[in-house]
Input
Amino acid sequence: MIDFSELGTIWNIIEPIVTILTIVFSLAIYFRDPLRRWRFFGYRPTAIMVIYDPQTMSVLLIKSNQNKSFWHFSQGGIYTSEINTTIEEIIRRELGIKPGSYRLRYIEEIGTIKIKNRERSQRDLIGFLSIRRKIQGKGYIACYIQADLEKIKKEIKAGYATTETKIFSVDEAKKLFESKLKTAPDMRVKKLRLLIEILEKVENDVKNGEGNGI
Output
């Protein structure tokens, strides 16, 4: 015959363990999403538009209002969980390119960069769970996008924050970023290394014959 009093005692012992495991599992699932994780710790999720042409091994770089002397990929904040909508909005706003002129290959989390104290601003993460009142830095997601750059050259135009656009070969872009490493401030050095890493992935993507049909 079952002694229910013993079962109750056993449950009293294991209940806290089950509760703790449930909380840990739930947190692991929640923070598996980099957007949630970054927002929670005060990092602004940012999408980098890696627009490249696999046929000519070239990439589209811009200069912006914030970085007028520095060539870099177009980028923008991610404020929803709809990454495709975010990509379309950034490309339309910053470059004037229509969705039918490019193809998203894949997206990839590439890391975070902390900003200096004097550069921290009030967080704009309203509606998202966060333990920080101010932005601590940015979390970057690279969006690898294929396009026939020569074909859409006339379509490309400076947009909201973009002041200038230019097509570089991947090799030219790498050398450009590498040339800045010695003189760039610490925060910029980490960003430059991320950009160089992105270009190396573009090279590997093309060399492996991935998605050469735009």
About this structure: The mean pLDDT is 83. The chain has one domain: 33-207. Residues 4-32 form the longest helix (29 residues).
